[in-house]
Structure formats: structure tokens, C-alpha cells
């Protein structure tokens, strides 16, 4: 009965990564095959019983990064199967499509039926009943953080997460107390209020933009079934349970289970670019039982029991009860919010998740928050400054106590202090609480007076500088990719300076070092190599044309063909050789999930193009290759495909399709051929295909093909093995019966379906092998060479086979013929331990030989470590980690092959754990997301594999070679500028505090200030803030051309030359000297004069402002008009502000500046202060640069002279090979 019913039910897909997956440790001698693509996967995953899992002879090995990584589900790999109708009449019987996938692959839910407690109940076309038990969220989305009411409290709460802000808030509050009031109450609040206001305005603007976007999104219209008619309804009003109709090219308003489509078999094509960044079309399917239902004409009722909302966009498990039947729903039956309907006139579905519960919204989170190394290190210096502050306050308060004790008998009448109020009949004390309390008050008042020792303005300055740096990085034309029309993107502003300190670069290969634009190069068919062992670049370009609906159509991509192979493909099946060629290209054209689309040819309006939409570039390349040899796929439906074979249209019924999954590493299609035979065509990786080839047949062909595979891999080509076999009627019926039973199983469905696929994919006849070239991106070899010269270690982590990875390593100059290669391929923990021990011994010998050769002048031989994913399974998260890192740290290059996505992240985590060196990961696909997020800096390539890597990255760009200007130019500049700016801000604020401190010592420790309170508040905001920000954005210590020409200059950041503890203490020492000069020169100059305190306070203010600006001017490398404007403009602005403040009679110091400026001694004092304060710094700087110049200084001087000689980069350059820095 089952065999007579035409049924097409694809099998479930298997995800590459899920959350909270069970993992069973296995001993090394268990004989279990390791899943290299994802060691977290458990074959037979739908059974929680270990015995049941072991029965399938597959079990998972514990991955390196299971315990340390958050769940980031990777792209699900396909593993679908399609059932078929009667074997006896394959051509005439209509084929209908059933469930594309059974149940979800998420382990925690795929092993049992969903219980009512864990389920969401959705009643079809009955939103009221659906929301009766639990009121589900509406479809309105709110990405904005604030409302009108919550903005002020929530924004302030978020801003005060910075401890420095709390510190300044406490200072402002203390200053409001009468006993502690040093400054005016308003003036004390001004700096903090200004910083909070600027940040709040920025946050408000960003949130306003989000609210406008939400408003547009929520007010979009969709067709919703209301009173048996489809009516337009705003997205925000859609409810769970409502039936919605989507038109072609419309965006889905919510997550919907498909009920029917315009296609008679229930197929719908969706584009998920807004969800996961992938532009290729995906197929989704409606259930057979709901295909014929027309909502406008008949009442649709039923119940969907689905899992609760979760973030897994590749998993979905549900059951649907309709018309007395229970149907299983899987990921291929649901279409998600944000996707677009393509190549389908309309689709009807029922809303199951709305609003913030949709998978798109649950995944709407940015990459992990990262803090730059400089900002983290700056905190330790701020602690030191806090100790300075406490020390100054302690000195003042203790000195005040001593002063009070010594003069306790004079306090009533002593001038400037007088404790008693004698203007009353009964003299009373002013606010005097005894000398003990006065000590406490003095200490607190000291904190208020010296508060700017902790530079609050530094935080906002750093934010502004980072924005400016990001602007120039984005506008850099040398990081613009014309091919993809993409600019550099700065997605994380807070780690710009980390780009200048990178020591390790972890790179993916496919799509990162290579273009990920696959080109078919050659093939081995039935043991004959049609490339003579090399890629023939002279082969002719194929120009194959067909007519579709009266239109001339040619493939969109041209492929180089071998003339001999092309002639054989045209000769049909006349000879044995031609028959194998025919079957080979038939397999390439049919064994895929390609969707053929006819598009316009912009170069020739009379011509149309056949555009193959596929879910992987490999599939597309093979389909275009088949078309070039005359096997053009022109039509695909859910039940059949049409292939034009050299002008003859042939229709093949698709009776079954098992798509590629990471366990089987192969895919197969079961075809009902025009001659009424049934064949299964299989393609896959050689590691999986050779195990299912019938070795009793054609042993010579198998051995020859193995040799061709090795030769292709050695050329850096990606290989696949093609096989096939005929199915007898009984075999087909057995497969179909087993498949139906597996696809309707409630428990263990995924394992059963995989077993069914394995049963049909066996005893194959080998047809041949294909070789696809993934070309290196432009400039990759030069980029890797520059990075290595800069002292950056480049590690390549790839899932490709070892031969292919090594070949790419040579072509990219990652590997050289002079390198000694250490290769580790082990299948047990004991073997790994032995290999690592031997490798360490060899490494030490090579190091000893290198030291000897260094003494004799012989060049040192670099070492390259090549290790596979199987070995890493046993090494990572074990005691062998330390040995691996010890070995890798002595190698110039590390190349990891056949590694799973989580193993990539585990390797990055290992380096971060063992060393404090900065790490950068770069990749282009979903399998690189974990690695990108684990590294200190993550870079995404906007390539062919979607935008998942870009969306998870800190920076994104179009080509790997852009990493060179990003690190060597912008990274160097950003680090040098930011390091200098932080030290300068410490200096700028500390010199002002020390002047106040010296004055307190001369004013009986009363903390009265000579400097106007408003000048104290404006010092960090107006007087001195703008120059340092502008210089930190625009100044360049070395030109771009020389930074690129001499990559060794990048080592300054790795050695932390621009910001370190030594520079901090030298800066503080210089600060103390300059403050002493600023304070005591006027004191001695006006010691015998009658000048008042506000006048000398104005002199100190102007002297400090001029001094810090000239200090900055001494360090500017490349002057321009902007620097002149901000530096001299700040000095002029300070003069103007001081004169304005002294023009108000109500303020202390009325007209003081005008009185003192009229004296010649004022200008002599300013000149003397500047000369005496800056002279030691100038002398030390000259001596240091003359006798012990660093690399940057040498390059800068030679650049200034206009002729860079070799000595500029030869003097004490940082060696490439360095021992790793220990983890601090």
C-alpha cells in the first residue's frame, strides 16, 4: 500500500552546532570514527540511551571548546531524503511532496514528543483561543532601549556603570555640604553634567533612529485572513494563530508554518539574506494534507503543538493535528520573519511566533562586548593615580592637624582663620567642630579640590578619538573592495587601538585566503585523468546554448573544458568509455539542490542567462561544469528535473534526495530515468565515498582514481568522488518502506533516516572524481609575507584535507621550501603524546642548530607545524595542551587541517590562556563565528558564504589583503595615538593638581584656592581638551608608505612602546618638575609684592594651559593648519575665558587679570616658566633620540631627509621569532 502511494518526504537536516549537547567521552581504542566537521555531533542523536547510540557504531568525541563556548548554532547541513511512488510506472505517476524534514535536530527536544508543559499550542485560524491560555506576545517589535519616561533613569543607570562616574558624583555631592564646600555648588557639578549630557544626547539620537525604524517596521501591511477573507493588516496587529498570505517578493512579518503555496507540490523558495546573510534561495515545503485547503472557501481548523521560542534558526520541532491526523513538522516547514518569498507567486501560513519571540528577534544581539588592552591597562594606572590622590589628601589633612595643634591657642584671633565671631554680644565659633573633625573635613575637601587627578574627560576624549579614527578607517580607499562594492566597516569602536598590538592571526582558508568562487578545473572519469595531472589553463572556454520557451539561454558562468572529454560527452552512450562520461556528468547535473533561474543578460538583450542558485559554491561550480559539457539542468520541481543533454530534453523523476550532512559527508539522489530504470547517484568527500565503493569491482580504477585525487589535492584543488549504482525493484521498495517508517517515527527519527540513507549509499560503482579550484585572493601571498615580517604569527585553521591545505600554504607563501615541517596525524591520546614529545625534541635540536648557524652566519631554518583535527580532539582540553602550545610557540607557521568550527575557537582560547599576546581571528563563514568571537579582535570577510561572520565581527572588510593596511597602518597609528593621549591626559590633569597641592602647603592647609573655581572646572573641558583629541585623530608618526614598506615598525605596538609602566612613571616625574616650576617661579617673582591671590591664580592658570599645549606641540610629528588652529586657539580661548570670568563683579578676583597683565613681570614669568619647565624634557628627548633611537625615530628621521636607506630598518629591528609573553 505504501509503495503505491506517491510520496516525497525528505529526511531531516543535521545542525553543525547546538546548545547544551550531550557528549560521551570515548577511549582512544574504541574504533569509533571521529566526526571532523563537528565533534559535538552524536550520530544516532535521537536516542538518549548510550546503548542505542552505540548500536549505530557512531558516537561523539568531546570537542575542544565545548565547555568554553556559548551556543552559536552554525549553518545546518542538509541531509534530506525523498520517497517515491510506484516502481513500475515511474514516468506516469504524479509525484507529491511531503514533509521535507521530520523533527528538530536539537538534541534536547528531538528525542521525545513535545509535552504540553514544554509546548506552545497554536489553534489554526483561531487567535483568540490560541491566546486564551497564555497571552502570547504581539507582533510589534521594539528594538529601542528607552521610552520617554524611562530614558533619564535608565540612561543614567547605564552610564554610572563606569566607576569613575560614581567617583565624580560623590565628589559633586560632597561639595554640596556646607562644611566641605570648596567650589560653588554649580561649578562642582558642571564637568560630570557635561559628560553625562554628551553621552545622553548620543544615546538619545541612536535610540530615536531605532524607534523610527521600529515604527516603519510595525506599520507595514500584510494580508491576514479575517472573516474568511484576506484583508490588509498592520504587522504589529498580527497575532499567533492567524492565517497570513504572502505575495512574491514580500517580506515575512512573523514565523509561520507553511500551509500551502502557489506550487502544486507545496514548494516555496525563500531568501534568508536578512536573517543569516545568505543570498542563495532555500526551499521550504507545505504538508500534503494542507495543500488543497483554500482558506477563503473552507474553514481551516487544527492544532499545532510546537516548541517554545528559541534562537535556533535551523531547528524547529512541532506536530500538527488536522482532519484527525497528526503530522510531524520540521525546519523545512517553517518560514521565518525577515525572509523574502522568491520565485513563488504566493504562500499561505499560520503564525506560530510573533514579535520579540520570533527567531530573528531572539538572535538580534551584537557580538560580545570587548575592552581594549589599553583601557584595561589604564585602570591600573588610574589606581596608581588614586593612591597619589589619597597620599596628597593625607599629607594635607595631617599637616592641617599639626598646624591646628600648634596654634590651638591662637585660633580665636589669628588672621585669615579667626574662629570666633566677635561681631556679636556673645562670641560664637564659626563652623568649627574640633580639630579631630577638622582633619576629616580637610581630607574630604582635599579630595574635592584635587578631584581632577582622576581624568573624567579622558573617557569622553577616548570615545571621540575612536569615532574619528573609525571614520578615517572607513574612508580609506585602500580598504575598499570594488568587486563586492564593500567598504571597511568598524562595528566595535572600543578596540581600535588593539589593532596595533596583534601578535597572532588565526585565519580560515576557504573564502578568507581564497575567493570561495569555485571553478571546475578537471576530472578523472573511470580512471582517466583529463588534466594530465595539472590544471590546463589553455583549455577552451565552453559556450553551450539551449532554448527554453523559445529563448536562447546560456550558462551564466563559463567553464574551461577539455576537448577530449567534451567529444566523449557528445558521443552519447555508444562506447563503454562514453557511457561512463555520460553517467559522470549526469551525476554532476542531477545530484544537487540547485534551483535553475533564467535571468537577463545585460551584455546581450537577445540572450538569457541560466543562473544556478545553490546553497554552496561547490554545487554551483559542478552544475556549471555539467552544463559546459552539454548536460544543462533547465528545470527543477519537487518531483522531477529536466536536463538538456546536447539538445535533447530528458526528464528524470526525483524519487529520493539525501542532501549532504556533516556525518555522512556525501549526498545522493535517486532518479527514475527515461528508460524506466532507477539509479542512485552519490557524490561526497573521498574519506566517506571510498568506504562505500564496491572494492571488488574495478580495483584498478579505484587505485588510479586515488592517485588522481592525491595529485589534485597537491595542486590545491578541492576534490569530490562520484559514484552510482542501479537499484532493483526490491531494493527500491525496501528503501521506500524503510524511509516511510523512519520519516513517520516519533522517537529517533534523525538516526533512522540517516540509517536509511546509509543503506542505499553502498556498494557503489565509482564513476570518477572532480577537481575544483578555489583561487587565492589577490595579494594574499604578499599580505602574509608582510604580516610575518611584522612579527605576527599567522595560523591557518581550515576544514580542508591536509594535501589541499599544504598546497594553498605554499601558494600563499605561508609555507616555504626552506621550512622544516612537523606533521602530526594521530588517532589516539597516546599517539598524540608520543608525537608531541618527539616533535618537541626535534624542535629543540633545530633551535640548537639555529643558534650554531647564527654564530657561523648561516640563515636560520624556520619550522612549520601541521596538525589535523583528529589529533586536536585528543590534545585540546587535556594535559597535552601545554605541550602543543610549547611546540607551536617555537614554530613560524601553524597549519591546522580538518578542524571543526569549535576546535578553531578552542585553539584561539588555548593561545589566549597561555599568553598575554593579542590575538586576531579572520573568517568569512558561519563556521568561523566562534573563532571570531573568541579572539581579542574579530574580523569578518564579506564574501560568498553569507554575512554571519560579518555580523559577529568587530571589523569587516572585503579582502584578506586589507588586513595589512588595517594592522600595519591604521592599527599602528591608532595604538601610538591612543597610548600617547592617555599619558598626556594623566600629565595634563596631574600638573594642575600638583599646583593646587603646592598652594595648599603655603595656605595653612586650608584648601582655599587661588585659581578661580570656574577655571578649575573649565580646565579639562574647554582650555585643554580639544588639542589632544584632534592630535590623537590626525597625527601620524610615520607615513603610510613607510609603514607598509617596513613592516618591522609594527613591532612597537607588540612591545608596548607607546604605553607602559616605565613611560607612566617618567611622565609623572616630568609632571612633578613642571608643576614645581609653574608654582614657585611666580611665588619667588612676586614674593615681596602686594599682588592679590586671584591675580597670581590667573597667572598659574594661564601658565599651566600654555605649558601643556606647548608640551603637546613638541610631540606633534606632522603639523597642519588644524593643529595650529586648535593649539594656539586653545591658548587664546583660555585668555578670553579668564578675562570674561574676571569681568563679573560677583565673582572672586574681579578685574585681577587686567591688573597683573599690565605688568612686565607677568610676561617675564610666563616666558621663564615655559623655558624652565620644558627644557629638561627637551634635553632628554634630544639625547635619547640621538644616542638610543628606536625604529620609528630612525624611520622618521630618514623620511624627513627624503632618502630612506637600508639602515633605517636594520638597526635593532625586533626579531620575528620571540618567546610568547606570559599571561599576566
UniProtKB/TrEMBL annotation:
The lineage of its organism: Eukaryota, Viridiplantae, Streptophyta, Embryophyta, Tracheophyta. NCBIfam families: ATPase-Plipid (TIGR01652), ATPase_P-type (TIGR01494). Its cofactor is Mg(2+). It is an enzyme of class 7 (translocase). The active site is at 508 (4-aspartylphosphate intermediate). InterPro entries: ATPase_P-typ_cyto_dom_N, ATPase_P-typ_P_site, ATPase_P-typ_TM_dom_sf, ATPase_P-typ_transduc_dom_A_sf, ATPase_P-type_domA, HAD-like_sf, HAD_sf, P-type_ATPase_IV. It catalyses: ATP + H2O + phospholipidSide 1 = ADP + phosphate + phospholipidSide 2. Residues 16-32 have a biased composition (Polar residues). It is found in: Endomembrane system; Membrane. CDD domains: P-type_ATPase_APLT_Dnf-like. It holds the Pfam family E1-E2_ATPase. This is Phospholipid-transporting ATPase. Mg(2+) binds at residues 508, 510, 924, 928. ATP binds at residues 508-510, 619, 660, 683, 718, 798-800, 898, 904, 927-928. GO terms for molecular function: ATP binding; ATP hydrolysis activity; ATPase-coupled intramembrane lipid transporter activity; magnesium ion binding. One of its GO terms (cellular component) is plasma membrane. Its main location: membrane. Its EC number is 7.6.2.1. Residues 1-87 are annotated as: Disordered. The chain crosses the membrane at residues 382-404, 439-460, 986-1011, 1017-1034, 1063-1087, 1093-1114, 1121-1141, 1161-1180. Residues 53-71 have a biased composition (Low complexity).
